[in-house]
Amino acid sequence: MPEQTTTIMEFGKPDEARYRRAWHAYQARRNLVVTLFISFLPLGFFVARMHLGEVFSFAMLVVWIGIYLAGAWWLTQWHCPRCGKLFGDRLWMPRCMNCGLSKQELMAVVRGK
Ligand SMILES: [Zn+2]
To answer: Domain residue spans in the chain?
Structure first.
């Protein structure tokens, strides 16, 4: 599509740097959320082995869920580098809900393609 090609070719160096910073910020947030999600099983196993009692184990679970939700919320607060508005209102949105910039396009700019 010629429109998309034109958009990508119009990037100047400052735009590219801004896109790169935004992409690294996104990756950091995404990796945190994925790590929190994956860590649930080993953490649950660890807490169960410590025999801390139901109340304490339940409290740990609630705290972990709170931390995960905070991380997920932080991920949804990531701003689109093109329009400057929130990229999406839920997790794993492939395109900006305001300007339509896709994560694929963003990755292509960051990788210099
Ligand atoms: Zn946007």
So the answer is: 2-110
Torsion of CA 18, 84, 6, 90, to 10 degrees: 110
Tell me how far the alpha carbon of residue 113 lies from the centroid of ligand 1, in angstroms. Answer: 20
Cα 48 to averaged position of ligand 1 atoms, centre (Å): 44
CA-based end-to-end distance of the chain: 16
Ligand 1 centroid to Cα of residue 98, in Å, is 5
- Count how many Cα atoms sit within 13 Å of the Cα of residue 108 in the half-sphere of its side chain: 12
Residues with CB under 5 A from ligand 1 (ion): 80, 82-83, 96, 98-99, 101
CA–centroid distance, 69 to ligand 1, in Å, is 24
pLDDT tens per residue, the chain (113 residues)?
444 444 555 566 778 889 999 999 999 999 999 999 999 889 888 888 888 888 988 898 899 999 999 999 999 999 999 999 999 988 889 999 999 999 999 999 888 86
**What is the reported pTM?**
0.78
